[in-house]
Every structure is written in C-alpha cells, then in structure tokens.
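Re: that backbone. Tokens:
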C-alpha cells in the first residue's frame, strides 16, 4: 500500500511538472499552498508556514529556518537559506502533491533530495555559497530513481486572533456603519440601521485577515470579507487603514457569499490580495 502511494505521488509530481517551465525571476508558491501546515502524526511545535516567495520551517519551540524560493517547476520548489553556515547555503528541493482521500492530510510533501543535515524531511543540504542552483542539476529523483522520502501535511484549522491594540470600539468610514468593534476573535459591524453583523476571525497572515459570518441574514450562505489592516502612526486623523481584498454581492458589493459548507482560504479566495484596494479608515469612537 505504501509503495502504491509513493508511485502515485511521484507520477502526480512528474506529470504536473512537465506542464511548466522553470521560472527563476518570479519563483512563487501557488496560492493554495500559502498557509500554515502541520505534519500529520508529528508534534505541533513543528510546522511549515508558506508565503508568496518563502517557506519557513519550524522544529521545536525555538529552531526555525526561513528558505527563499529560488526555482520552481509546477509543484516542485527549490529553496535556499543563504549563508546558513560560513561560506555555505542551506538548500532543499521539495514537491507537493494534492491528496483527495486522506482523512487528515490535504497534501503529501515529497523530498526530492538526498538526506541533509538531520533526519527530518525538511533538513537542508549544505552547498557552497553562490553555487548555481537548478531543478535539473540540484534536485534529485525528479525523473525517477532512488527512494523518495515523503510525509503528509494538513492545513491549520480555521480560527485566529485580532491583536490587542485593535480591541475596542472604532468609528468606521464605511457610509452605512455606525461603528466597528473588535475583541479577541470577533469583529462586529454595527450599521446605522441598528443591524449588527458579527464576523469570526477565520484566518490571519500578518496584517491580512479573512473573516466569516455564519448564516448571513438567516440564509444558508455565509458572508466572507478579506481585509488588510494597517496602522497609520503618522496620520493626524486616522489610526488604521482597512482595505477590502475581495469582490462581493452584499453590503454594497463588499461581502462575498459562499455556501455554509464551503471551505475558504485566504490566499486562494481573496481575489485582490496582490492588488491595490479602496480603503476605509478607523479612528477612536
């Protein structure tokens, strides 16, 4: 059974890789991968955090390595940490394969490189600084041969926290708003009509938030907002800029509606996350 799984994983990687060309100038992780991931069956103190152009590996409470994406071909990624040791870069080649029927995992993580400094699948190898890195030349097992190490990873569960400095009541420049209130896990919009809409903090990535309100206005759909919240320490009038990063159908086309059963992901479903957005502002009530 395990051998069959390895073969399926490898074939998935190989087929997907053949459809893409290596891109060094814009090496980016796919939107669906950008999140916090745990290793199935391992301690939760070890995890991956994938962002647009970097992947951070944390093992234990204090040790972490942040790799920069330098080459990718489809779902194969070559990453490095420059000068991890004097004169040496830490290099790792990994691939991701979607798993549809695993009870916990969403992806398998495949190591496409011989063993590194440690026994963990994310342990890097040391390569002399400024060595030219390529998928074909640096990665191994891409075209078969050798025994590939793999493990399963699962996405973090929904739920996040708003920073303490946001907690409280705020004036909000949305024209139909009376005020906006934050606590640890919720954001409540109070409209001039008296209606209140409470959003749960679903996902956070630094200053990016995805918030969700269940059963919007007693329907079978949930309302979703994608937000970028930034402090304005030099602004004489406003404390925070809050920009919407999604299209929508409700609340003046601000609120994206999704079926209540549908999972949503910050970097996949927020369409304007890499684009300028029209902001609103927060200032003390």
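Recovered sequence:
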């Amino acid at each position: 059974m395990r051998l069959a799984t390895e073969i399926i994983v490898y074939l998935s990687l190989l087929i997907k890789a053949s459809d893409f060309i290596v891109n060094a100038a814009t090496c980016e992780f796919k939107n669906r991968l950008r999140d916090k991931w745990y290793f199935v069956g391992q301690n939760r103190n070890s995890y991956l955090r994938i962002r647009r152009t970097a992947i951070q590996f944390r093992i234990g409470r204090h040790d972490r390595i942040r790799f920069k994406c330098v080459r990718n071909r489809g779902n194969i990624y070559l990453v490095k940490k420059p000068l991890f040791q004097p004169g040496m870069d830490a290099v790792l080649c990994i691939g991701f394969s979607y798993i549809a029927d695993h009870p916990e995992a969403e992806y398998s993580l495949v190591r496409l490189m011989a063993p590194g400094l440690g026994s963990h699948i994310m342990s890097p190898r040391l390569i002399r600084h400024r060595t030219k890195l390529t998928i074909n030349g640096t990665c191994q097992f891409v075209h078969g041969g050798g025994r590939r190490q793999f493990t399963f990873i699962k996405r973090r569960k929904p739920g996040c926290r708003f920073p303490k400095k946001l907690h409280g009541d705020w004036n909000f420049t949305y024209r139909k708003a009376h005020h906006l209130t934050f606590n640890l896990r919720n954001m409540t919009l109070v409209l001039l009509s008296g209606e209140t809409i409470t959003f749960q903090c679903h996902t956070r990535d630094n200053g990016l938030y995805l918030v969700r309100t269940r059963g919007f206005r007693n329907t079978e759909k949930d309302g979703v907002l994608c937000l970028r919240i930034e402090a304005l320490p030099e602004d004489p009038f406003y404390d925070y800029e809050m920009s919407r990063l999604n299209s929508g159908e409700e609340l003046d086309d601000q609120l994206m509606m999704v079926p209540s059963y549908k999972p949503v992901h910050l970097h996949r479903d927020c369409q304007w996350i890499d684009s300028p957005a029209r902001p609103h502002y927060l200032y003390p009530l």
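The helical segments are 2-17, 135-138, 266-269. DSSP finds three helices and 18 strands in the chain.
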